[in-house]
TrEMBL record, chains A, B:
Gene3D superfamilies: Aldolase class I. It comes from the Bacteria. It comes from Sporolituus thermophilus DSM 23256. GO terms for biological process: ketone body biosynthetic process; L-leucine catabolic process. The keyword Lyase applies. This is Hydroxymethylglutaryl-CoA lyase. Pfam families: HMGL-like.
Length: 305, 305
């Protein structure tokens, strides 16, 4: 029997993972408009920006402005703004702006970590330790990159994933997210890896960040659901996720996943009509070519018989 | 536990369902070239054409020529050419060309059957009875259209599907295919309907014809696999399936499904590289805009660790 949860937590990553992949600078006011539309649609957790060096990703040069505006506006509500931080400096800057939960990326694959972050896994873990030591009331989510495959070393052994999670937990990580960084996961693999991680770390909140590069975004989501995952990171319109070919999909689109979950009777807290209005804003003002499906199809209402 | 079969039968429908949705007439030689490339890639069952009236679908005016050529060339091999037939006249024409297995469409929804075929369900079933009576050694697959939802009546009750299958079996149908005609199925629904059909008709070969309109093509495939289905109808490049909006996906792309199945260790008998070469032919000579994912992504080889 396939069993599904009653409710799923949707973590929106579009304003970080999506926007950072867009070359033209998006006006800060437009970013904030999309963020506010997503919150109004019911999103309760969102990566709103990334505290990387502006020379590395100029699109994120307004990280402090974005974070401050969102934190000020939604303080005291149940909305949780997240930011990605690559190091202690970024974490301190995020904290100063009011951010109390951050995503920190380390690759299961040593070669990918070196290529992507220019650090060994050990160096990444040492930096993580300095973040949790210096900012003890900052919650840290560990994004395990290349958890399902690496562009350099191919298959990523389950033990590399488990050992990275264990090391992260020892350094104070509160949440773990398995990321299909290059979009090569398959449902069997997702199901098996999730079960292995849950067996090893049963009390650790576990999320999935899945790509739709090869059309398996929702199939992998389904496999994750069947394995017990109730937290998924997705992106408005399918923006971002480093697609490596023109027209290829990257991140799974939030609206595609929400539509599927609602059709299955799984609650997300999101109002799909309002969410689709936010997708339209993104299409009209930021990125005309979206890879999500719901922006092209129409919403289907299950009329009564 | 999610369990998956060792092998899946891929039924290619691109040269029928895909080509019939293309407005410009595709030269018969080009159609035959794609069909031959698909067979060379390992496809062992394929809808090669449709014996509809050429006034209804001019693209299928060369049905007899296509069927005769393919039947002559592959007689005595393990390749099975299929054709869609809308009525007894079409079935006789197909039979005359050498076709020994046909697809016959009836909608679970009365309103859709009237709109699509201009017959009541009862009239469709009477025509079906005349086909099986007049051509007793022609195998008939019953394509149950709108099995998961109807554009006119919305939700389609499970009993409408079960009663249509029962009526089809009484009239000599050999195989049943549940079709997500308008791309609104969700994985939970697929799983539940397949289990209900298998429980009611445990000995009847059952296939699924799934669309990717809302990004759920492979998720629904996965749900079907988990429910025990081992026969899936898909289309080269994702051609066809009546997408009702520009850019929207219709049929699930064969190459996307094959890539997923192979990654999961499920055999299909198809050589993905050769199949992708056929997709390129379709893209270069028939339809430049394909909705399948694998034509835009690259194939990912799981290198050794």
């Amino acid at each position: 029997m396939m069993e599904f949860p009653a409710r799923v937590e949707v973590v929106e990553v579009g304003p970080r993972d999506g926007f950072q992949n867009i070359k033209t600078f998006i006006p800060t006011a437009m970013k904030l408009q999309v963020i506010e539309q997503l919150i109004a649609a019911g999103v309760r957790k969102m990566e709103v920006t990334s505290f990387v060096h502006p020379k590395a990703i100029p699109q994120m040069a307004d990280a402090a402005e974005i974070a401050e505006a969102v934190c000020a506006k939604h303080q005291g509500t149940d909305f949780v703004p997240l930011a990605l931080v690559p190091n202690l400096v970024g974490a301190k800057n995020a904290y100063r702006c009011g951010i109390r939960e951050v995503a920190y990326v380390t690759s299961a694959s040593e070669q990918h970590n070196l290529a992507n972050i220019n650090r060994t896994r050990e160096q990444s873990l040492a930096e993580l330790a300095s973040i949790t030591a210096e900012l003890p009331d900052l919650k840290v989510r560990l994004d395990v990159a290349t958890a399902f495959g690496c562009p350099f070393q191919g298959r990523v052994n389950e033990n590399l994933v488990l050992s990275l999670i264990e090391a992260g937990l020892q350094r104070g990580v509160a949440t773990v997210v398995l990321c299909d960084t290059i979009g090569v996961a398959n449902p069997k693999q997702v199901y098996n890896l999730v079960r292995a991680v849950r067996a090893a770390f049963p009390d650790v909140p576990l999320g999935l960040h899945l790509h739709d590069t090869r059309g398996m975004g929702l199939a992998n989501t389904l496999a994750g659901l069947a394995a017990g995952v109730t937290m998924f990171e997705t992106s408005v319109g399918g923006l971002g996720g480093c697609p490596f070919a023109p027209g290829a999909a990257g991140n799974t689109a939030t609206e595609d996943m929400v539509n599927m979950l609602h059709a299955m009777g799984v609650d997300t807290g999101i109002d799909l009509d309002k969410y689709l209005a936010a997708v339209q804003t993104v299409r009209d003002h930021i990125q005309p070519e979206l890879t999500g499906h719901m922006v092209k199809a129409c919403k289907y209402e299950n009329l009564s018989e």
